[in-house]
Design a protein that fits this description.
The complex is a heterodimer of chains A (289) and B (282). Chain A is mainly alpha-helical. Helix content of chain A is 75%, strand content 1%. A two-stranded antiparallel ribbon of chain A has the order 1-2. In chain A, strand 1 and strand 2 form a beta hairpin. In chain A, helix 3 packs across helix 8. In chain B, helix 7 runs antiparallel to helix 10. Chain B folds into two domains: 59 residues; 213 residues, MetI-like (MetI-like fold, Orthogonal Bundle). Chain B has 282 residues and is mainly alpha-helical. Classes of the chains: A mainly alpha (289), B mainly alpha (282).
């Protein structure tokens, strides 16, 4: 009886196991292998070259730019997706009647394709008719050509950061609604002010939600692709590359499969490393408190 | 003193609304701008990017729907074939796997759980190049399935994790009663576990649909035939192909968003639940 149940359970698991083996675990191993080879244009010839790709990678100025850009992105998401979203959630929590309206609007960008958002911002940044130049002239400024080597990464990252503010807003709002109202009531009796309420009650009570959100936004920085691809495609002159866009170009536009694979491996290693360090740091702080 | 306190309170309230409304406007204004411009000719747009159209015309929409090489109407059909198949495949395969992991307990179950968690950490970039090679060797090359299969695989781990967690929380008594009456595991799955897990299946289905519909990268990499490509890939080529036809670009954005807007309006709660449940998805 038990053996038969076991067989059935394994049978039900089979399709998932086959798919994961063929399209997740096997390719992961293959990417690691490719990263040690010289391999061009998806040909049949792969030459094992050891750590050469990784050595090139350390010297590659574009990789340096991509890492710097990722750091800028991390600062942006922490400031806005965590900081600003938290402020919005605390503010909305105080306005009971139209909170649904704000939530509906704030969350909508998450539903839209990043591709559409990317194209939308490309048009917003246009010189002749773009929305940004309209607002600049409205406030008495001069029209500008926005995207250049210095500005490209910031302009490409604005939509990336903007899109997901509403996501964490909803997460924090749910967290706030889970805080017991008894705590607030007793604080109200003590005559607490709204700002004090936010700083001394709401934020500390959200600690675990904040921790997991911070880990989530930071590790998410390595997965950003679509919007950058649409707005600048890494340019001009590679100034707005991320590891993701650079890897895609190396593999599919310039046909350097070995080097692209080594970039992909660096992406996973960095992602896992940053996530686990962050977890340890944030949880360590929790024990002290 | 009391009056001053009241004034301060009012000022704080106004400031609060200003911040909230400001952030709402960052979403409303750009979308409205794109919508208004989608009804204008490109000359009108270049002349004045914010004016209302002289006369509402749908030429931009006609252009993108029937543009010979980048037809949005054909892209829509492709999108629904691809995303529909992905949702169906994920629900079916993940449902079976979750039933096996969630409703049976064996020694190996906890190892399977660990493997799933590890798979969540693998980004699609890490598997893209080998998958591209595999797909180009398989007979599915050049068909919708070339995008569907990797997308199913990419969504499996997360869907299985969500469904398994939900199925484990269901009470055992119903299954046991059915098994004592001689029901097969398949009967238990289709008549007891599946109906009870319907809310979680809906959440997973919506999450996977939106993710698949919006997915640019996998369709772009695995599916190079223009005639089979979904909406997002076509949209990504619009700015290069249409040159200075800005009106059509605006219309293409609106057309891409509309199905999602409809889904959002119909079932906002489900969509928000589905996407926030997908928070840790790779």
């Amino acid at each position: 009886m038990k053996a038969k149940r076991q067989r059935t359970a394994l049978l039900f698991l089979l399709p998932a196991v086959v798919l994961l083996l063929c399209f997740m675990i096997y390719p992961l191993g293959k990417t690691i292998y490719y990263s040690f080879t010289a391999w061009y244009n998806f040909s049949a010839v792969q030459t094992f070259i050891g750590l050469e790709n990784y050595k090139d990678l350390i010297r590659d100025p574009v990789v340096k730019t991509a890492l710097r850009n990722t750091a800028i992105l991390m600062a942006g998401v922490l400031l806005f997706q965590i900081g600003f979203a938290l402020i919005l959630a605390i503010l909305v929590d105080g306005v009971r009647h139209c909170f649904k309206f704000f939530r509906t609007i704030y969350f909508f960008p998450i539903v839209i394709s990043a591709t559409a958002i990317g194209l939308m911002f490309t048009l917003i940044y246009k010189y002749e008719y773009g929305l940004l130049n309209y607002f600049i002239t409205l406030f008495g400024g001069e029209k500008q050509v926005w995207i250049n080597e210095k500005t490209s990464i910031y302009l490409a990252l604005i939509p990336v950061v903007w899109q997901y503010v509403g996501f964490y807003f909803v997460i924090f709002l749910t967290g706030i609604s889970n805080i017991s109202s008894d705590i607030y009531e007793s604080a109200m009796l003590d005559g607490i002010r709204p700002v004090q309420k936010a700083v001394y009650i709401t934020v500390p009570m959200l600690r675990s939600v904040l921790t997991s959100s911070i880990v989530l936004v930071v590790s998410g920085c390595f997965k950003v692709f679509d919007i950058i691809f649409m707005v600048t495609n890494g340019g001009p002159l590679d100034s707005s590359q991320l590891l993701s866009t650079y890897m895609y170009q190396k593999a599919f536009a310039r046909g350097n499969g070995g080097y692209a694979s080594s970039i992909a491996i660096v992406m996973i290693v960095l992602g896992v490393a940053v996530t686990s360090v962050l977890r340890k740091m944030l949880q360590g702080g929790e024990e002290d408190a | 003193m009391h009056e001053a306190g009241k004034g301060k309170e009012l000022a704080a309230r106004i400031l609060k609304y200003i911040i909230l409304i400001f952030w709402a406007l960052t979403t409303i204004i750009p979308l409205l701008w794109v919508l208004v411009n989608s009804f204008k000719t490109s000359e009108e747009i270049v002349k004045n990017g914010v004016a209302l159209p002289a006369a509402i015309q749908f030429n931009n929409y006609k252009t993108i729907m029937s543009y010979p090489d980048l037809s949005m109407s054909r892209a829509f059909i492709n999108s629904f074939i691809i995303s529909g198949s992905v949702v169906l495949g994920v629900v079916l395969i993940a449902g079976l796997a979750a039933f096996s992991l969630g409703r049976f307990r064996f020694k190996w179950t906890k190892y399977a759980d660990a493997v799933l968690i590890a798979c969540l950490l693998v980004p699609s970039f890490a598997t893209m190049i080998p998958n591209f090679v595999t797909i180009s060797k398989l007979p599915v090359r050049g068909t919708h399935a070339a995008a569907v299969i990797p997308q199913i695989a990419g969504n499996l781990c997360f869907s299985i994790t969500l469904l398994t967690g939900f199925m484990r929380s269901l009470p055992d008594e119903l299954d046991e009663a059915a098994i004592i009456d001689g029901a097969s595991p398949f009967y238990v799955l289709t008549h007891i576990t599946m109906p009870l897990s319907r809310p979680m299946f809906a959440t997973v289905g919506i999450m996977v649909f939106i993710w698949s519909y919006n997915d640019l990268l996998t369709s772009m990499v695995y599916l190079s035939q223009r005639s089979k490509q979904p909406v997002c890939v076509i949209l990504s080529m619009v700015s290069n192909m249409f040159g200075t036809d800005y009106g059509s670009m605006m219309a293409a954005i609106i057309v891409t968003i509309v199905p999602l807007l409809v889904l959002y309006v119909i079932s906002q709660e489900q969509v928000i639940k589905g996407l926030t449940a997908g928070a840790v998805k790779g």
